């Protein structure tokens, strides 16, 4: 039941009480021998009992409608404040509230927004400090290990896959047309499987590269990553990256989220197109990654995917939020929004 309906029912109840009170007051002031006399007595050519009943009900319903409309408007205002708070925006609250209860709610929402903003700012600052500290201690070790693994895979498995691909291509080209068609199809299938394995190996080698920005801005890191990726795979890759300063901790987390998302696309999506967007709108940084791959069930993947959980945690550590929309056979869209709570200073290389 809505607030307006509830207030109308209360108004109708109040009208009935008013009708009873008026009737009893009239009978006390002008005693009647029988109750039927109330019907015979008229007011403005209307039987007294009908006149008082109609006036009471109309007044009660009118009061209920006015009260319901007012409180519905107040509740909608509170709902709007909470929605803006949920979206990370500062609620637009009218300071001239007529009721103390609504004024108290508005004051609490202001305090809650202030606390959320302070915690998000603290999270960003801690993320920046944590990123700088960890990068100075372990980045060199991680870089060396990733380079070693990438070099060994490139020198052994990748070269063997390339040789196998060349060999299968030569066999298929020299095979006589009159030979067994079934065998030719099987050889062609093997060649395609080797080609697909080459693509996955290239994606894996790209993923094994050091993930730190190493003094570059987020925009420079994204462009370098996507340019190299475009040279390694046949996927159509597009991007739009706007230049604007960010704290190092925010840049580091967004870059790692992008790498994880691109890696998932290369390994699982079977996509032909990949689009990356990095923009700043209304004091928010928006990172969006869209592909046209096979998609997946987001709810099922959340429970068992370490990568998705890691991306959600990284977005939360910098006071942001991440949403994933995926439709099977139509693609996946990942979007991260991070509020900018202070003007980012000069980045430390």
TrEMBL record:
How does the entry describe its membrane topology?
Answer: Multi-pass membrane protein
What keywords tag this UniProt record? ATP-binding, Cell membrane, Kinase, Membrane, Nucleotide-binding, Phosphoprotein, Transferase, Transmembrane, Transmembrane helix, Two-component regulatory system
InterPro entries documented for this protein: HATPase_C_sf, HATPase_dom, His_kinase_dom, LiaS/VraS, Sensor_HK_TwoCompSys, Sig_transdc_His_kin_sub3_dim/P
Keyword Transferase found = yes
Specify the Histidine kinase domain's residue ranges.
Answer: 148-342
Q: Name one GO molecular function term.
A: protein dimerization activity
What's its catalytic activity?
ATP + protein L-histidine = ADP + protein N-phospho-L-histidine
**Compartment list:** Cell membrane
So what EC number does this one have? 2.7.13.3
GO (cellular component) term, any one = plasma membrane
From what superkingdom does this record's organism come?
Answer: Bacteria
Q: Which PROSITE patterns match?
A: HIS_KIN
Q: Does the keyword Nucleotide-binding apply?
A: yes
Q: Which residues cross the membrane?
A: 7-28, 48-66
Q: Which SUPFAM superfamilies match?
A: ATPase domain of HSP90 chaperone/DNA topoisomerase II/histidine kinase
**Protein name, please?**
Sensor histidine kinase
Which organism is the protein's source? Answer: Mesobacillus subterraneus
């Amino acid at each position: 039941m809505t607030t307006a309906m509830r207030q109308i029912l209360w108004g109708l109840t109040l009208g009935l009480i008013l009708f009873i009170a008026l009737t009893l007051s009239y009978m006390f002031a002008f005693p009647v021998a029988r109750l039927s006399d109330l019907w015979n007595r008229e007011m403005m050519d209307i039987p007294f009992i009908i006149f008082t009943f109609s006036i009471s009900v109309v007044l009660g319903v009118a009061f209920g409608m006015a009260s319901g409309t007012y409180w519905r408007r107040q509740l909608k205002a509170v709902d709007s404040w909470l929605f803006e708070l949920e979206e990370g925006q500062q609620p637009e609250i009218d300071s001239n509230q007529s009721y103390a209860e609504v004024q108290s709610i508005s004051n609490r929402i202001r305090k809650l927004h202030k606390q959320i903003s302070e915690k998000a700012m603290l999270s960003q600052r801690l993320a920046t400090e944590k990123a700088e500290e960890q990068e100075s201690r372990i980045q060199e070790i991680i870089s060396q290990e990733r380079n070693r693994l990438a070099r060994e895979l490139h020198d052994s498995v990748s070269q063997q896959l390339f040789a196998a691909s060349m060999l299968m291509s030569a066999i298929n080209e020299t095979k006589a047309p009159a030979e067994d068609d079934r065998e030719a199809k099987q050889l062609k299938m093997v060649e395609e499987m080797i080609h697909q394995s080459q693509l996955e190996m290239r994606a894996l080698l790209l993923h094994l590269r050091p993930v730190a920005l190493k003094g570059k801005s987020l925009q420079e890191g994204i462009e370098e990553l996507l340019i190299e990726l475009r040279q390694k795979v046949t996927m159509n890759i597009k991007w739009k990256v706007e230049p604007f300063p960010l704290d190092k901790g925010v840049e580091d987390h967004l870059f790692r989220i992008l790498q994880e998302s691109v890696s998932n696309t290369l390994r699982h999506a079977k996509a032909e197109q990949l689009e990356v967007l990095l923009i700043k709108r209304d004091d928010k940084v928006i990172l969006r990654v869209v592909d046209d791959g096979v998609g997946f069930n987001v709810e099922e993947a959340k429970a068992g995917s370490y990568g998705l959980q890691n991306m959600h945690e990284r977005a939360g550590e910098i006071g942001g939020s991440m949403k994933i929309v995926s439709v099977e056979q139509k693609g996946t869209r990942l979007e991260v929004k991070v509020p900018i709570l202070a003007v980012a200073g000069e980045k430390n290389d």
